[in-house]
Amino acid sequence: MGALPLTRAVPEGLERGGHGRRVLVNAGPLRRYTVPAMEESRRDRSALRREGMPGLSVALATATALCALAVCQYRYGIFDQAQYLVGVVGMQDPGALGDDPYLGAFGALRSVLWPIVAAATDEASRPLFCLLIALAVTVANVLLLSALGRALLDASGAASRAAPLTVLLAVLAPALVLVVPKEQNWFGLVSLGDVELTATLAVLPLVFASMLAWVRGRPWISLLLAAAALPVHGQTGAYLLTAWWVAAAWDGRSSPVRLAAVALIGAIGAGAVALERGAVALADEQVLALEEVGRGLYAELIDPRTGPLTAWCAVATILLLGLVPAARRVVRARPAPERRLLVWWAASAAFPLAGLTLLEFGADEALLWRLMIGRSLMLPQIAALVVFSVWTMRALAAGRRRAVAAVVCLVLVVAWPVAQVPLPVVAAGLGLVLALLALNPAPSWPDAGLSTPARRRVCAGAVTALAVVGALGIVHFEQRPYPWLASGQDTAWGETQRWARNASAPGTLFLTPPYLSGWRVDSHRPTFGEVKDGGLLFYAGEPALGWAHRMRQLGMEPSFRLAEPAAASARSLHLSRRAYQAALERGGHALVAWTGAAYVVLERTHDVEMGAAVWSNDAFVVRSVDGTVVAAIEP
């Protein structure tokens, strides 16, 4: 009589086969049988084939990115991007801007983004090229954040039995709330809000890639990615390297060799900071003057202590959302990826805490101001929102009440601070959700796989948040006053610039309304100065002092806050116009002689008799100081 086959279960650590299958090993012949039956095995193999769905991942990421570009009103050639494009004009058209001091400020930035744009485009192709870069950056953000969400879901065991499409939708959750994280409002509040192509946006894939490498247990790759951020955006690179160093020192105490390597890297970083500080050293009186300029530009970024209570409440709300899933377990009891993310989260707060401490003890340090402590708060907020959004997808499987609260909170975070949603409504909604979460204790990250009903809830939550982004995108796109590839500048302002380009010689200096921005981009001519210039000149140190003096001569004091039509309130714009007109009426001819300007550009509603009017349109008048006009030059 044949013996019955004897089987034994594989030890717990080896019990799971590929993709969650439980395996029994025959104690006689070394054969394997999968449980349950062959039909489930076939389903598992089918899931394995579908699991790597790069095409679907890229398609969903691209759709999400396009929605984000529409929600955030992507535009070319205005606000910060217009100021950075000045450097591109200077590279492509040498001599056109003369010795405009604004060009020198680009040396302080040392970003590789704009030389690439200058080398790869001409004036006609630049708008499309910038749009494609913004789209590629946003798609990369979605894919990297999805990979980060997948790593966390895998660690909890949730992805092992869920269908691939379910997992794909679930891991999009971090991307939904952070698809275009950039400093918003006060203190680096991160949410949908800005997709201008600047170095700040371009560096984000490196931020997320460094986080992902750290969470996956690859600290040295994380370090290389953080270092790679430096030539793209120096500020963010400094934040990342500081976060990495603190996390590595904290996480590597058990290995003396690793700790020594981390200490060496810290010493190299300290030396680099000392060299940077020495390169832009200022006299004591210049340091005090630069602090005054910085506080006039953006006091809350160089000194967060000056921010209003509402700003601190916004930061506290974001950080509190991240603490919700961390409430039940100590760090050591978590799976490794979760633990690493929480360590990175804590480490990312080291830079702002250290900076605030230095300011509290009265540090007068120009380098510290240029690093902008307030902006560095974006890193812990990014980590907090990643933790919360992944936990939200997990909470959907825990029960109806908790699921509703989590989804409502996720949707509100996605929508905040988009202009269509009134801020008080969002604030009240977030407060209500936080109260519900506090009353309904937060679950820890479950280790069991998702059941079929739970999968449906996860899908419903992710699709709901996707629908919010898509609907807002459609609304913004339909209401858009300008196309994506056209400059968002006022038409009359652009016409004036193009006239100046055709009717004046390269290097001809214009005196333009300082509260308007972007003059150099289309005119290819220098201007005496714009209020917006200060944001970049501040990084150059001493040149910012000369800019501040010029702004005071034009009446732009006591604060250097931007007052251009697209960004300012009607009252602040009116005050800026009146101040500029008064400065010209007081001593316009002497002011023009001091500046060396050949032409003065005035708004028709605030015209001042200074020389002969040589050109005008519905909004602007151009006056020649000596009454002569240079023959038109072919563009």
Question: What topology emerges from the helices and strands here?
Answer:
Blueprint: E1 7-9, E2 22-26, E3 32-35, H1 38-51, H2 54-71, H3 79-92, H4 101-109, H5 113-120, H6 126-156, H7 164-171, H8 173-178, H9 199-202, H10 204-215, H11 219-228, H12 234-251, H13 256-279, H14 284-302, H15 309-323, H16 336-348, H17 350-360, H18 366-371, H19 373-376, H20 378-395, H21 400-415, H22 423-439, H23 452-479, H24 491-503, E4 510-511, H25 519-523, H26 534-540, H27 542-553, H28 570-595, E5 599-603, E6 612-616, E7 620-624
Parallel strand pairs: 4-5
Antiparallel strand pairs: 1-2, 2-3, 5-7, 6-7
Helix pairs in contact: 2-6, 2-23, 3-5, 4-26, 6-7, 6-10, 10-11, 11-12, 12-16, 14-27, 15-20, 16-20, 20-21, 21-22, 21-23, 26-27
Report on the structure:
With 635 residues, this protein is mostly helical. A hairpin with a 3-residue loop joins strand 6 (612-616) and strand 7. The relative contact order is 0.11. The chain is built from 28 helices and seven strands. The model is unreliable at 1-52, 441-448 and 627-635 (pLDDT under 50). Helix 4 (101-109) crosses helix 26 (534-540) and helix 21 (400-415) runs parallel beside helix 23 (452-479).
